[in-house]
Amino acid sequence: MMMKSLKIAAAVAVLAAAMMFGSAVNAQTFPFVAAGSSAAFNALAFAGEYSATPVCGLYNWTAPKGFVTGHDNRSGAGASDVAGTVWVEWNTSSGGSTGPVTTVCAYLNIDSIVGSRLYFANPQGSLSFVGGCPNNSGIAYPPNSPNQVLLLPADVSLPTTVCNALNGQTVNAVPSDIRPEDAQFGTQRACGPFISATNPATLGYGGTGNTCSPGVAIASAFSTSTAQPIAFTISGKDPITANTIPAWKSLDVGAQIALIVYNTQDTGDSGAGLGNAVFTNDGNVDRWVLAKVLDGTLGRTRDLIPEGEGLPSIPLDVVVREPLSGTMNTVEFSVTRDKEIDSSQELGINPGGAAPTGWTGTTNPLDITKTSAHGSTRKLRAIGTGEMVKAIAGTVTPISGGTYKNQVGYVFFSYGNVSPLTNGSSTSIGKYFDVDGVDPFYADYASNPDGLGVLPVCTVTSGSSSCNGAITFPNIENGSYPLWNVLRVVTTPSLAAAGGSVNKLVVAAQNYATSFVPDFVPYGNLQVFRAHRAVTLYVENYNCGSGSGCTKSYTPEDGFTTAAEGGSDVGGAVFTVEAELDYQADNSNKQLVTFQQ
């Protein structure tokens, strides 16, 4: 009954405040107005509402894409508004959902890099209700219960007062799968020119002059959704407005896992469909094989596992994310573009040109097919976590038509993210693979209590969670599973400081990941870290050539000295925390930096 008692206590506190201070509590505050990663979307919703003194409020409303967008307020950016799912939580001075508004939080679920751009832009980006708020004093929008955040209490109607308070409010936080340095680097990589079919160092989405002011919209193969690279910088001067970028701070939330997921509906094809027992029983894909599947080199189901030898040749379809996705960048630099393999999910993909040699179709939207005597392999782009999950489930149709099956892709885990793929049993529409023989959830693949490869489910009944303690992520804590990264929240120094609203929200999220819904590994539970490395980024504009002050090299800091974390760490080599401390003690505080997976 934990949730119920906490919410009753919170309601009493709100009513007491209203009685004591009257109209004085009507001043509106915005503790958390965020745009960013899907991985933290559910966890921070729990954190904002479930506690004796909620950071955000007692009432929640959730909406799918189409209601709220992120808006880049820089004149000359040329940016389209960014749509995403959203949750809103609030409190009132009366203790009811429709009283005078005191506190409002919101979270727009979009790409980590796009959220970073909205936060670091100067002037900062803002949230906007599509079409504005209704001109009345009652309900702005009714509940969207089929789309609400999993495990939250039932949505209530969004009052017009809350809509008016939030509409146009600037973003003050960005939950991100990757560090700010990696987010800016991801934009620069997308914006740089397409070099050649064998050199994916930069990707060709920069538009005129490769300036990304604006860049070419990266299009979905399944919908009208796009992700648009637009120039921004995390220090120095804004490349579009020349305004100075304010100070910021990054808070480490915890380790999140990128899952390799696949569709199980093909139980035929003479045993070579991914729904057959041979794939579930093996349940593992080697990192090199995975990389070559993602870059388009391998394209048959039997390529995935050793037991595939002798199976019929059945095409394997692949779904990848956009280069502005934190999930894509984590998988890219942990597998396809790590130091050993040095390939890319974007290998051969020229967004302004024809399909790669041997393939047909379009490169933007990415929807290409390789046809041989043994069948046709298809590679498609999904924009956003929700669309990736639908593509793996097979519930969305490519715009160009045609079919796809035996599809494999990836997603950052949360119970909410994977819920459309699983019913918690062997009949689930989607399952997961181990990578390099290491399980992301349990000590080993055979220890899954729900069955081999079955994704976990979670329910909440009368304030109790069915998944409390169900997953402990031992191979994330010890760093042996290769696809993980640290989830951060970037915000202002004051909101990040002890007692600041975003700091409180992060602490609450870590507590709930331990005691209620284990969506990630709280940062303090990690026995390992990823080595940081230097990265050179633009700090003024994208046309400054080799002029003085044009770039800045960010010094790598692992975060175990008095200095704050710094530099890139996506795909960084994994070391134990003790190894770092011993190395510092033996080497005059030098750090285990520059090493890459």
| Unreliable stretches | 1-25
The strand count comes to: 28
Helix count equals 14
Class by SSE composition? alpha+beta
Structural Rg: 23 Å
Shape: globular
Largest sheet: 11 strands, mixed
Overall pLDDT metric = 91
- Whole-number tally of structural domains: 3
Through-space gap between termini: 44 Å
Beta-sheet strand percentage?
15-25%
Helix content: 10-25%
Protein model, in words:
By secondary structure, the protein is of the alpha+beta class. The protein folds into three domains: 2-177 and 207-251 and 486-515, no CATH class; 255-482, D-Maltodextrin-Binding Protein, domain 2 (3-Layer(aba) Sandwich), CATH 3.40.190; 530-586, no CATH class. The strands form eight sheets. Strands 10, 13, 14, 15, 16, 17, 18, 19, 20, 23 and 24 form an eleven-stranded mixed beta sheet that branches. A four-stranded mixed beta sheet has the order 1-6-5-2, with helices on both faces. A three-stranded antiparallel beta sheet has the order 4-3-7, covered by helices on one side. The model is unreliable at 1-25 (pLDDT under 50).
SSE map:
Layout: H1 2-21, E1 29-36, H2 41-49, E2 59-63, E3 68-71, E4 82-83, E5 85-92, E6 101-109, H3 112-120, E7 126-129, E8 139-141, E9 158-159, H4 160-166, E10 173-176, H5 180-191, E11 218-219, E12 226-227, E13 249-263, H6 277-282, E14 284-285, H7 287-294, E15 317-320, H8 326-336, E16 360-363, E17 366-372, E18 375-381, H9 385-393, E19 407-412, H10 415-418, E20 430-435, E21 460-461, E22 464-465, H11 474-477, E23 484-491, H12 493-496, H13 501-515, E24 521-522, E25 528-530, E26 535-538, E27 551-554, E28 574-576, H14 577-586
Parallel strand pairs: 1-6, 14-20, 15-18, 15-19
Antiparallel strand pairs: 2-5, 3-4, 3-7, 5-6, 8-9, 10-23, 11-12, 13-19, 13-20, 13-23, 13-24, 16-17, 17-18, 21-22, 25-28, 26-27
Helix pairs in contact: 2-13, 3-5
